[in-house]
Specification:
The structure is a single chain. By secondary structure, this protein is of the alpha/beta class. The chain has 15 helices and twelve strands. The chain folds into two domains: 50 residues, no CATH class; 318 residues, TIM Barrel. Strands 2-3-4-5 form a four-stranded parallel beta sheet. Strands 9-1-10 form a three-stranded parallel beta sheet, covered by helices on one side. Strands 6-7-8 form a three-stranded parallel beta sheet. Helix 5 runs parallel beside helix 7 and helix 9 runs parallel beside helix 10. The two termini are 29 Å apart. Bound molecules: iron/sulfur cluster (SF4).
Length: 385
Amino acid sequence: MYYSVVDDDRGTDFQRRLDGVLDKVAVGRRLTVEDGLLLFRPEVSLHVVGQIAAEACRQKHGRTVFYNLNSHLNPTNVCVYRCKLCAFYRPAGHAEGYYLTVDEILRRGQEAWDAGCTEMHIVGGLPPDKPFEWYVEILRVLHDAYPKLHLKAWTAVEIAWFCRISGKSPTQVLETLRAAGLGSLPGGGAEIFHPEVRSKISAGKADAEEWLAVHRAAHQLGLRSNATMLFGHVEEPWHRVDHMLRLRELQDETGGFQAFVPLPFHPHATALAHLPKPAAMDNLRTLAVSRLFLDNFDHIKAYWISLGVGVAQAALAYGANDLDGTVRQESIYHEAGSDAPEVLTVDQLCGLIREVGREPVERDSLYRRVRRKGRDWEVETIPQE
Ligand code: SF4
């Protein structure tokens, strides 16, 4: 019997089901969809779910919290799609549409290199007039100039678009990108997989099956990737559980996902601007449930740009073990109203982690420890606890 689990006692049956879920977690048994739904119920104490998620995290990672030094690059904001969730895109021909030139892209690479970054995170719009070779060239010029900078590039939605415009399969597209310098895939574009929601927030772009097929192909090639979930708009809790279930199944099959990144929706300047932002309590609960439900994901990331710095720090007590990075040049969330700072320094990130009694460890994009030697660095594999 767990105490203070249910804030509003709905009777012994409810309590019995909850005890059953918590017993499963204690012995490392997998949660069912019904278990996941139960943990989303507001009557279940957030603090207890958080405590259990934090313990599951401690068993995997001890006191370690990861961060990295990274920079973002959005080569264009011009996009053929009109996702209602998006404040970033501009239609072709719009006065605010932009394309970075090769010189500007290289300047961003130099800036990232000078700042000690180990990773460049590259995503953007999908303009109607750029061939696949344009995207390949972006990776090639950056990789040639900064071969040690890991290029985490193009969401599965973008890869699916490259397939459409090139006539290639996901495997062929990924092989071409890897030859040009691709290091791994970010987890964006997943939104909410269920078509009932996806059709309302991002109609037209790659659906769940396409998104998962791209990540499956990447994993089969030996590339690692992340997965996101954009929540807190028009979905119900069961859509979130359905989303995580699909990811858990693919992870069982391939083992290629590194981190899960729950992203609260920012409505400002989107077509869904009338919706409220999800509450901090909802953000923490979603993060904690993901740690418990996604038992085959090593890393749960508290992305401070999206959560805000304070909630991201609190998330370290709710199952997260990664704060993402210094994040230079982020624009997608800031256009959607994020009031997070433009960048955090290494000292600030480490301070946030130490303030909650945890140990900061700088990682590279593949979760290897980074050892700095002046302006250079080397990496070493971190054994799991
Ligand atoms: S979310 Fe991506 S695909 Fe959708 S409109 Fe924005 S940039 Fe385009």
